[in-house]
Amino acid sequence: MRETVSMTGMVLSSMPIGEYDKRLVILTREEGKITAFARGARRPKSSLLAASNPFVTGTFSLIPGRDSYSLVQAQVRDYFTELSAMLPGVYYGFYFLEFASYYGREGIDGTDTLNLLYLALKALVHEQPDARLVRRIYELRLMVINGEYAPDPAKMTQRTLNICRYIMEAPLTKLFQFTVDETVLAELEKVLDRHRTRVLDRRIKSLEILERFV
Fold it and tell me: Yes or no: is domain 82-213 CATH 1.20.1440.120?
């Protein structure tokens, strides 16, 4: 039997497999985005029942396989249960998970993306700043992490350009600690919508759902 490895991460998605199992996609600090199977996780008394859902964050004990992992235990840090009861906060949350999954790759360092995702979800739960701004901060910084954004000064006012530069360069712990007025936010939304449409090569399904409610 292969040795168990421990990874810190967050469950990005969870899909039923067979009668009792689940297929999880987990963003990990150590190995980027991985696939893991939680055997028996849908049984009522399973120790993996609560830990095999989207948003769950913690330390996962896994057995490596050829193309995936088997989840054997989880020490949960946060379930984000408050978010599931928030509208439209939960729609923002699922979009954040899917956007992280879009950029996720196996075998890379996922530290920055994982930390950004965690802080963005915490900002949604605390409702500070406004969820619209949280979304734009998250989008911009995630694209920066993946080398896909450079602001074009000719396409925005100086105030909005300054905000973009701050989001691109500030420590992650400082990202969600400011607000902007409606004029700057509206311009930031337009700039990022154009850029996201240009660089992404497929639709983000959860974004379509989010935009129906906001």
Answer: yes
